[in-house]
Amino acid sequence: MKRIFLLILAAAVSEAAEPNWPQLEKSALDLLQRYLRIASINPPGDTTAAADLLQGALESHGFQVRRFTAAPGYVNLLTRLPGRDRSRKPLLLMNHMDVVPVDRAAWKMDPFGAVIQDGYVWGRGALDMKGIGIQQILSLIALKEAGVVPARDIVLLITADEEMNGTYGIRWMIANHWKEIDAEYVLDEGGFGTREILAQGKLVFGVMVGEKQSVWLRLRAKGTAAHGSQPIPDNANLILMRAIQRAMELPAAQPHPVVAEMRRNIAAPLAANKYTAAIQANTASLTTLQAGVGSPPKINVIPSNSEATLDCRLLPGVDHREFISELKKRINDPRVSVELASTPNDSGVSSSQTPLFEAIRAAIRKHHPEAVVTPMLVPHGTDSSNLRLKGMIAYGLTPMVLDLATAGTMHSDAERIPVAEFYKGLRIFFDVLKMEY
Ligand SMILES: [Zn+2]
């Protein structure tokens, strides 16, 4: 009898268990600042110091942390919080420790100072993705401290090398420690809350369910070398210019089902900007042009070779071989070669008809009752594609409302995270993790 009573009491406590929020927010902000002060720039991608900091924070709350060193300096961390139903495959929380380089001269703030000003924490990695990493870590700690046993095991994987394609991070973990990370669900970066980027004046949280494929193309034109004083039509630069123009006249793409679902959920016109344009179509950006003879290149020499690269991004489900063969047909010139310079990954789309997606929707709406929560595509690639290819249901969750200017500071010289949203995101993560999924 007493035993049963105690069990009921324990259940009631864990139902009601809430962290001491002001204290948790203070530790989260403090840890984020210390984390941002570690310049885990990739390349070279050394995550030793960052891993030491996070491992210490987790271990001080009783977590057993495993360290996987893929190559000297490339440290990955893994820990696990056991859940109620151990027969179900876990939920994998994933974040990365490395950040992209900085142009110090362009930064007004110290990029590794973690200065707090105007309601933001400033620094390289604040958005991509140390802020989200700390939200994941602290909400897991809070769950444990509050005695909440999650629905299933939660595995936390903190990786190196995301910004250089994951060779010594996620790809290495998949190849060498698959059993430790095998899960049904993944929560990674991607998506965001916004009042302007997806629909003007309407609060929309996009949860990433799929991403575009990177198809990088190198176009090379061959012509005849000649004296610049006597123009010829067989000029490699002219041949290349025509080819680029034709290559970039992309046919309209079939509307993608995820975008159609976004439209239905948002029930308002999608905002018109480069972001929404990119998730509705196959795209091509002309990124490099190279030609000329000599260094510096001679102005009076017509070169025999000319080269350009196109960064093409294809919607999930589009066959890149077909895309390339149609592009070649449009160019229709034997003097121009087209070479693929990336390994396209069509990882498809994760279903949003899952208990986890419903938990995410409920947790976001608890804190933002007016929000539309919708699955979305993102125009860039993430680590999740590797796991979606292995059959996991992978979502990108950034539980913060970002305005256009702030969202645009990722990888820029003014990267920052709004403190109030950082705190709110912590609560959203905590609520997601304690729900049924
Ligand atoms: Zn990232």
Overall average pLDDT: 95
Order the strands across the largest sheet as they lie in space. 1-2-6-3-7-17
Low-confidence stretches: 1-14
Q: State the CATH architecture of the largest domain.
A: 3-Layer(aba) Sandwich
Backbone structural class: alpha+beta
Task: Report the sheet with the most strands, covering strand number, pairing sense and barrel closure.
Answer: 6 strands, mixed
List cofactors, ions and other ligands: zinc ion
- Termini separation comes to 31 Å
CATH topology of the largest domain: Aminopeptidase
Strand percentage lies at 15-25%
Q: What would you note in describing this structure?
A:
It is a single chain. The strands form five sheets. A six-stranded mixed sheet has the order 1-2-6-3-7-17, sandwiched between helices. Helix 2 (21-36) runs antiparallel to helix 4 and helix 11 packs across helix 14. It has 437 residues and is α+β, with helices and mostly antiparallel strands. It has helices spanning 2-16, 21-36, 48-59, 126-145, 170-176, 178-181, 236-247, 257-266, 274-279, 320-331, 355-367, 384-389, 404-407, 419-434, and strands at residues 66-71, 74-81, 91-96, 116-117, 120-122, 154-159, 185-188, 192-194, 204-211, 213-222, 226-227, 283-291, 301-302, 305-314, 336-340, 372-378, 393-396, 416-418. It has two domains: 19-190 and 382-434, Zn peptidases (Aminopeptidase); 212-340, Alpha-Beta Plaits. It binds zinc ion (ZN).
